[in-house]
Fold this sequence. Notes:
CATH architecture of the largest domain: 3-Layer(aba) Sandwich
CATH class of the largest domain: Alpha Beta
Largest sheet: 6 strands, parallel
Low-confidence stretches: none
Oligomer: single chain
Helix content: 25-40%
Structural class: alpha/beta
Strand order of the largest sheet: 8-7-6-10-9-11
Shape: elongated
Distance between the termini: 23 Å
Number of domains: 2
CATH superfamily of the largest domain: SPOUT methyltransferase, trefoil knot domain
Amino acid sequence: MSLPYFVGRVAGAAVGAALVVEGDEARHAVVRRVRVGEQVAVTDGAGTTAVGSVSEITKSALTVTVSAVESAPAPAPHVTVVQAIPKGDRAELAVEVLTEIGVDRIVPWQASRCVAVWRGERAGKSLARWRATARESGKQARRAWHPEVTEPASTAAVAALLEGADVAVVLHETGEESISVLDVPEDGYVVIVVGPEGGINEEELTAFHGAHVVRMGEPVLRTSTAGVAAVAALLSRTRRWG
């Protein structure tokens, strides 16, 4: 049975020391009915996980006596998905499945054909929801490294990301390349661009020149699921899935 998994500050944790988890995570422990003496894991989402037994629990704090500290290397290759902003609940679905499959960075992109528009207060709230979803999904997937969700990127910024990638992929219905034949390095950076439901327009496609323009088979996938399919196709040929 998997240990209950929490997110907290693990920096400086040592065997035998007390590690305190506070706030929402402690309240979550109460909801889960975690008991004194139970073994749990606490991760910082940046590669370090502490395992230990619960020595004290209140409504606002969970105290763990550390029995082991594990450090996981950063995943390689590093995978970034540029996600055109979906509408409604599909935005959180996209972030959830991308996190579960192991994406390292998620970049919201306000493509020209996005129905949802992030402006002002709405932009801040939407970004906060994406980051909260990534955090919860990372915990659910028991990832030692949680994905970074960046500030929204312009088309020019996305083009720069593609130029700096070892493997640059743009998903598009006109693509003539197959994602299954792309070479994936064991190290380095992979960037995948997922367009909106209305598609990537010609100006944007021109800005992304030099990237591999691929189509994911005959079916046209939704923007909220196309990214996870593309990432799976690439990671299945790396040691991350070995």
